[in-house]
Amino acid sequence: MSSTTPRRAFVTLVRDALASANASRLARPLHAKVKVQPPHEDASAPPSYRFAEPTRSADAPAPLASWRGASASWLEGGRARGASKLPSFRFPEALSATDTNERGAYASDVASASSRAAFLEAEASEALRAYAASRRDPVLADALGSEFNQRAMRSFHSPMRKHLTLDPLISEYSVDSPEGVALMSLAEALIRVPDGAGTYMPDRLIRDTIGASHLDFMSHLRKDKSALVNASAMALAAVRRVVGDEGRADAFFSDDADFARLDPKPRFAVDAPLRFAVKRAIGLLSNKFTMGDTIGNALRRAKRDERAAWAKRQRVVSHSFDVLGEGARTENDAARYLASYVDAASQIATSGVTSPQMSVKLSSLSPRFDELSRGECVDDLARKLASVVPGAASPLCVFVDAEEQRRLELTLSVVEATLRLKRHDPPAALGVVVQAYGRRAMQTLEFLRELAAKHPATEIRVRLVKGAYWDAEMKEAQVAGADQYPVWTEKRMTDISYLSCAAFLLDNANALPKPAFATHNARTVADVLAMAGGDARRVMRRDGGDAERAVGDAYGSFLEMGCEFQRLHGMGESFDYAGLPTRVYSPVGAPDDLLAYLIRRLLENGANSSFLKSLANGRTDLMNKDALAPGPPIVTNTAETTLTESPRNVPSGLPASPRDVYGGSRLSARGVDYENPTFPSLFAATAAFAPSAERVAAFPFSGASDARFATFLNDVKSSKASCVVSGDAMSARVTRRAETLERAADLIEGDTTAMAKLIMREAGKTLVDAVDEVRECVDFFRFYARRARETLTTPTTLRTVTGESCALRAQPRGPWLCVGPFNFPFAIVGGLASSAFVAGNPVVIKPHPATPECAAALVDVLKRAGAEDDAVKVVTDAVHGGPMSENAGSALVNSGVFAGVSFVGSTKVAADINLSLAKIAAERDAPLARLVAETGGLNALVVDASALPEQACDAIVRSFAQSAGQRCSSARVLVVDAGVKRELLDMLKGALEAMRVSEDVADVTTDVGPLISAAAADAARAHCAALESLGGALVAKTNGEDDGALFHPRVYDLNPDPGSDPLDGLEMCKKEVFAPVLHVVTYDGSRESLRETLLAMNEKGFALTGGVMTRCESTKALVTDTLDCGNFYVNRDVVGAVVESQPFGGHGLSGNGAKAGSEHYLEQFVARKVVCEDTTAAGGNLELMRTTG
After folding, report:
1. Which residues are catalytic?
2. Which of 245, 614, 792, 995 is 20 to 30 A (C-alpha) from 421?
C-alpha cells in the first residue's frame, strides 16, 4: 500500500507552516536548546538555527548520556530486589529497608516527608525531560504543533461537526458543570439497572437526578452553541420543570407524611417518554464510544471504516479490539471472560481487518489477581493468556492491557511466564500497554527490551498511553500509607514521561518494533514526529529551507520503524494525524458492560486539563504548550533547608506526600510494600515481636483474695503517676507523654511486620488485617499526642466581665482501667491506653485472656519510648475462661481503685461493669467512676436496584467476612431490593467460593482465618442451625468444611419466598453473632417497604454502623436519615474506620461516650478546673484604664 500521496501532503503541510510562520517568533531562541548563529559566520546569510547544549551552572550535572541521569539509583534499587523487576515508588528502598536512621528521620515529620517526596519526583522528572529534549527537534515540533492544532480546531468547529455530531454536546456537559455531573451520574446508574427492577428504579433515578434544584440547564443555551446543545438545553429544562420537586432528594423528607413514605404516583404520559428518551441517549453514547455490541458486529463495522478511510483519503487505518467487562469477582466470571477472549481472538485473526490486534485484561481472568496470591495467579493467568495468544502462523497480536500500578510487576511476570509456556510455538508478536503516568514507565520499557532479547522469535510490541486512572491511583496511595505516589502528580510530568518513553521506543525500535503512540493531543503527535527524524542536531533555517528534508526524515523514519498513532473510537476524530498510520482502539460490548469504560471516556473528554476540552473551548493558548520546556530549578538535596522549602502540596491541590492527609498536622501510618515480589520471603524471615520480660512485668492475676493483688492495687493508688497535677505541672506531664507516644509510634512503624506477626499468631488474624491493625495503633498514638498538646497543655480562656479572668484547666482523673477485646488486641487496646495515658493518668491494661502478649508489646514499646515505670501496667488472667466473679477484669472493676474504665466488648459485659461501678459508689460512699464503653452492633447494609452489583459485592464481602466477621462494625444484615437480589446473591456465591479460608494465617494468601476459639465457632454454628430451623436458606458459603475454630463465612436468605415480609425475616435476628454470618432480608423496592424495614432495624436497639449502596439520591437520603447508627457509609464497605477521618463509636446498645479517634475523645479522661481571679484586687482595673488613656 503506497504512502506517497499522504507523505507528499504532509511535507507540503509542514513547508507551508514553516514558511508562513511569524519571523519574529521563530527568531527567538527556543527552550535554551536553540540559539541564533553569530553574524560573523556569514554576515550575508539570513539567521539560521543550530542546536547547542543547554546552559549549565557550575555545579550542575554533566549532560545526560541516557534517560537515567540522577535516577540511576532507581535501577540499582531494582537490582537489589532480587526477584523484583521494577522499583517501588510507593515505598522507596531507602525508606523500606533496615536503615532505621533514615526511616526515623521521616517517620513523623510532615514537612520533611512532603519535601522529600516532592524533591525526588521533581528530580526524576527533570532527568526524563532532559533526555527527551535532547532527542527532539524543537523548531520542527513547534511548527508542526501549531499547524496540527489549527487543523484540529478548524475541523472540530466546522459546521458539519458542530451541529451534526455528539462532540460539542459531550464537551458542553462535562465534569466542570453540575449539569454534566448529574447527567453522567444518571447515565452511570441507568446502564446497570437490572430488568427485575421494572420501571420504578429508572423513573426514580430520572426524577432524582434531573429534578435536582441546583441544576440550571438553560445556562447552556447560547447562540454560538451547536443546534444539538441548544436543543438539549431546552429539552432538559422542560423535563426538569415537569419533574419538579418530586425529583428532589431534599424534598423527599417534607412535612407531608405520605410523601415521605411513598413513591410519587406514576404518570405514564410523562414517565414512559422520559425513560425512552434517556435510554435512547445512552444508546447514542454507546454507539459513539464502542465499535459494536458483539465482536462480529464490531469487525464488520471496522472493515467498512478501513475501506472508507483508504478510498476517501488514502489513509491507513487499522483497529485494536477490546472486549469490555469488569474484573472477575468469581471463577465463573473468569471462565466466561476467557471464553469470550478465545472466541474474539479466533474471529479477529480470520476477519481480514488490517494488522489485527486485540487487548486482554488480566484482572478479568482471575478473581485473585493480586501480589499476595502471586504464587498461584501467575501460572494460572499465564496458562489462560497462552490459550488466547495464537502461534507464529497467526497475524493477530494480543496486547496485555495496563491496569493499576500495584499490579504492574505482576502483569510483567504473567507476560514473561506466558512466553516461557509458548516457547515451542512462540507467537509472532505479543504486546504490552505501558502507562506513561506511572513513575516506573521507563523501567518497564527497559525490562521489556531485556525480555525481547531473551525471546527473539517473538516481537514485543508496546502501546504507549498516558493512563486513565490517575485519580484512583492517588487515592489508593493515600489509603495504603505510601511514601510517594506511584504516578506523576502533575499533568506536565506525565507529558514529559510520555515523550521520554516515546524517545526510548524510537531509540530502541530494533528491540521493541512497531511502537504505537496513543494520544489525542496534536502537540504530542508533533513532538513524537520531531523525535522520529533521527539526528536532532540538524540545522533548520527559519525560512523553511530544510523543512522538506526534516519532515521527510521524520515521516520516513516513522514509517520504516512501523510506528503508528492510536486513538480511542469516538475520540480524536477532528485530527487526521497528518495522514500517518492510525489505529482505532475499539471497545466491544453490550450496554451492561459499558459502565466503567463509558464514564471514563466522558471524564476524559470533560477534564479541564484535557486537550479535547481545550479544543472544544477554543483555547489555542493551551493547545501548543511545550511539555519539554525547562521547569523551575530544583533545590539541591544537600542543603539543610531543602526539606522545608518545597511546597507541601502539588499543583493538583493534593499533598506532596500521600501520608500528609491531615492538613500538615501529622502523617498517617506507613503501609507495607506488598507489591514487592520478595515480600513473602522477607515476611517469612521476620520473627514475631517478642516483648522484653525486663521492661514488661505483667501481673498474673490468680484471685481477688490474693495478698499480692492487694499490694498491686495499693501500688497503683500510691504511685507517683497517680498524683493529681494541674497548671504547669500538668502541661509538662502531657507534653512529655505526647512526645512518648510519638516516639512509640515511630518504633511500632519501624517494626510493622514483626508486630503484625505477633497479632497473627496470638489473635489468628490474616496478614492484611494484622498490618491494618498496626497502622491503626500508630494513628491513635500520633493523633492523641497532637490533640493532647492542642487541648490539655494550655488553659482555655473563658469570656467574662471586665476586671476578671477565668481559665479552664485540665487535670488527670486518676488511675484508669482499660479492658481490651480479643478482636483488636493491639489497635483498640493501644487506643484505650494511649488516650488515658496522654491525659496524665496511670493506666492499667487488662487484655483479653487470649491476647496478653499484644498488650505486653504495647507496654514494651511505650517504656522504650520513655514512659515512666509506674505509668502503664498489665494484668493478665492466670486461668482462661473462668466465671465473671473469678477473672481479673471483674476484680479490678470491683476494687474501687479506678477513676474510670474504658471497655470494648459485649453489651452484656459493659452493663455488668456499669452496674458494678454504680454499686461501688453507692455501697462504699466512693466517687462514681466513669465508664467509656464501645460495644457491638446489629449492623445493616442496604443495596437497592440502582447499585452496581460488582461494587456492591465487593463492599458486602469486605463488610461481613473481613477479619472473620469479628469486628464490632461488621455487617450482620443485608437489606436488598428484590429487583437486584438474584443477581447479587449469585455474585456473592461466586465471590465466597473464590476466597481462601484457612487456619494457616501465616500463609499470605489466606483471606479469612479462624475465629478466636472453638467455642466461638460452635456458637456460630448453633446460630446457623437455628436459622435453618426457622426457614432461613443457606445461599452462599466459602469452599471447605468447618474444623474447630475454623468457621466458613455464610450467607442466609431470611426471605427465600418471593413476596415474603422483610419484617418476618428480621425476627430471626435478635442479637449480634460475632462471626461471618450475613442475614439477607428483602424489600419490594418501594420507599415504604424500605422505610418500614429500617425502622424495624432501629427497634433492635443497636446503633453502631450502617451503609447503603445506591446511585439513587432519594434512596441515599432515606437510608441516611432513617437508619440509626454512629457511623454511616455510602457506596463503600462499613468496616475499617480511620482515626480522625472517621471517628468510631455508637450509641444505644452499641456504647456510650465520645467516638474513638475524635477531637473530643480525650475530654473523658480529664477533669476540668475553672480558675477565676478578680484582677482589680490589686487596686483597680489596670487593663481597662490603659485602654481609656
Report:
1. 934, 968
2. 995
Model confidence pLDDT, tens digit, residues 959-1002:
999 999 999 999 999 999 999 999 999 999 999 999 999 999 99
Q: Which three cell numbers stand for residue 617?
A: 473551548
pTM for this one?
Answer: 0.88
Give the DSSP letter of residue 1130: E
Confidence of residue 384 (pLDDT cuts 50, 70, 90): very high
Q: What whole-number distance in Å separates Cα of residue 147 and Cα of residue 149? A: 5
* Cα 857 to Cα 864: distance, rounded to the nearest angstrom: 11
- pLDDT of amino acid 153: 76
| DSSP-assigned letters across all residues of 395-461 | --EEEEPP--GGGHHHHHHHHHHHHHHTTTS--SEEEEEEETTBTTHHHHHHHHHHHHHH-TTSEEE
Decide: helix, strand or coil at residue 328: coil
93 φ, ψ (degrees, to nearest 5):
-55, -40
List the beta strands (DSSP E) in 42-103. 48-51
Amino acid at 354: T
Return d(Cα 859, Cα 867) in angstroms, integer.
Answer: 9
Residue 643 CB: number of other CB atoms within 10 A?
20
Question: How far is the C-alpha of 435 from the C-alpha of 462, rounded, in Å?
Answer: 10
In tens, the pLDDT along 683-716 reads: 889 999 999 988 888 999 988 888 999 999 999 9
**Which of 313-327, 388-402, 829-843, 881-895 shows the lowest mean pLDDT across its residues?**
881-895
Residues paired with residue 431 on neighbouring β-strands, in sequence order: 399, 461
Q: Which residues of 619-633 are buried (b: 16+ CB within 10 A; e: fewer)?
A: eeebbbebbbeeeee
C-beta of residue 169 within 8 angstroms of C-beta of residue 177: no
**Helices 200-210 and 178-191, axial angle in degrees (round to 10):** 170
Half-sphere exposure of 1127 (CA within 13 A, CB side): 33
User: In the predicted model, what is the mean pLDDT of the chain?
Assistant: 82
Distances 512 to 144, 466, 1174 between C-alpha atoms, Å: 26, 18, 84
The C-alpha cell 501549531 sits at: 146
Angle at 581 between CA 576 and CA 582, to 5 degrees: 60
- Report pLDDT digits (tens) over 261-312: 456 655 655 567 767 776 676 666 677 778 888 999 999 999 998 998 888 8
Beta bridge partners of 776: none
Total residues found in the chain within this entry: 1189
550-to-18, 140, 278, 528, 830 alpha-carbon distances in Å: 11, 8, 51, 13, 68
Looking at residue 221, its pLDDT comes to 75
Nearest to 558 by CA among 206, 17, 68, 140: 140
Are the C-beta atoms of 565 and 553 separated by less than 8 Å? Answer: no
The pLDDT, as a whole number, for residue 97 is: 36
> What Å distances lie between residue 1134 and 381, 908, 934, 984, 1144, CA to CA?
32, 24, 16, 18, 11
Q: Which residue, among 815, 823, 620, has the nearest Cα to 720 in the 3D structure?
A: 815
Instruction: Quick: pLDDT tens for 520-529.
Output: 888 899 999 9
- SS3 category, 498: helix
CA 1146, 1151, 1154, 1155 torsion-angle sign: negative
3-class SS of residue 565: strand
What was the pLDDT predicted at 570?
77
Give the integer Cα–Cα distance in Å for 485 and 437: 11
